[in-house]
Amino acid sequence: MKIMVFDVPAEAGGALSVLNDFYKEATSCEDKNIEWIFVISTPFLQETENIKVLRFPWVKKSWGHRLYFDNIVAPRLVRKHKVDKVLSLQNIVVPNVDVPQILYVHQSLPFASYRFSFMENKLFWIYQNIIGKKIIDSIKKADKVIVQTEWMKRACAEKAYIKDDKIFVVAPNININIKNFFEANQQSLSTFFYPASGLSYKNHNIVLEACKKLKEKGIKEFKVIFTLKGNENNYIKNLYKEVKAQKLPIEFVGSLTREQVFDLYTRSVLIFPSYIETFGLPLLEAKLHKGIIFASDCPFSHEILDGYENAYFFEPFNERELVRLMSSSINKELEYNKHFNFENDKEIFEKNMIDIIV
Question: Which domains are assigned to the chain?
Fold first, then answer.
């Protein structure tokens, strides 16, 4: 059996993680009669006896190049190699081919309740209103759809007006070796950590506003850690300037190693105000470290945290709710339960994509 795997957008971040994770799954697949053909742009993947890699770096030159590839080159590749199935890891199916297609949807912007205006963010508006329509149309056309969470399964079914029996949930491949757990003490309860990129929907601004209000209340013995440098984009540059001007206790430490992030989960409270996510990995990581978590009151947060006693939710556009939670932590008014069983979470990671594809 020949299976062609398309993922030309993958270059960095979460998209590249999706590609690398599935490549590892394919290399460890016990059925060596499957011939895998990976179609990618710039990343490097090692070819093996049953894995062939086709690279098209020119796809990244412009949107025009990408459209030409998707609509002309991709269908030709499917026909040329006489593949039996197509797996698309890029949110849209390959057009005009007569083979079964499995679609992996991991772009959550079209399904978010928050809608961006064109003036607010042109790229996000395009994803929600133009690319989003292509994604929803692809969901309708695909033979099977794979998503990372139950909330995405419901959202895909509702947006595409289809039954959810062709949509399968497979959580991201997460390999976490927990060495230490959160310790509740004065320092950890007054240290707040937010590991996130500088995208506007990561909502760092709500943390800044909460810090300003805490300072106004005379609460100063705390600090916040962002995994940003302060120069990522105009949104973050302005935020950084205000932090310095207001002399707020927010540290911009830049990117951290996985080990450094895990260490901070054991000695700080996780704040997660993002309002658009597919999975929200830090929520699970902090939970597995038995940490205290302040999370946005959104479907992806509840899917990971419901039933976890050390999780608290706040409306992501209401800094007063976050102020109340941060103040309670600083003043040691929160109850902390360090005895928690994670047996139910193990079931989340037992499924893999190949079982659904083959």
Answer: 2-174+349-357 (3.40.50.2000), 186-342 (3.40.50.2000)
